[in-house]
Amino acid sequence: MTPFIYTLNDHNVEVHPRRHKQAKRLNMRFDPLKNTVILTLPPRATQKQMADFLKKAEGWIEKKVSKKVEVVTFEDRGVINLLGEQLTITHQRNFTCRAVKIEGDNLVVYGPKDRLGDMVTVFLKRHAQEKFTEICENYAEKTGEDINKITIRTQKSRWGSCSSQRNISLNWRLMFAPYEVASYVCAHEVAHLKEMNHSKAFWKIVESLSPTYKENVKWLKDNGQDLFKYGAS
After folding, report:
1. What residues have CB less than 8 Å from 212, skipping those under 6 apart?
2. Is 220 helix (H, G, I), strand (E, B) or coil?
């Protein structure tokens, strides 16, 4: 479907509608970096239903648009919070090796300066794989479940998922959330190994693994959008 401009009181917003054969109702998400609304429609949704849905969501859209997201690129002397730990990115030119290491309060990048951003991104995704695998496996052991595979991805609207094949996917930008929040998402997906739903039984498992999960859910709702600003171009 063709994107179009939707006019609010003080803003013009680009809407990208798309039909999805498995969608049962209209749904939308906001891309804060592109300042666009992604609108998902069931196969038989009408133009009137789409217009009515957008009208009812105007308050939500305006709130999202008005909250400007400043893109944070990885640069020398830049400061990032990694699972709650503040680190300063420090470039060290090195002609013999390329590496990124956490050294005290610094994230030291050895290599050409023009590759610093890419090197930090690669390192953080690998670090996420290591950290989140450790957390998930610990939770899986507590529940007596086995994980088939853990994958780190760059999802645009999800923090994690668990498939019926027992594969867990996690968003690497959770690295910029507090440790407890990232751990909650890991607990959430591990709980799906036992309950592939969001029933009371499911949330009971989540609570047993992450007792403060309600606070972490709220943190993601209030602050999750800001995590997408890191490493964006």
Report:
1. 180, 184
2. helix
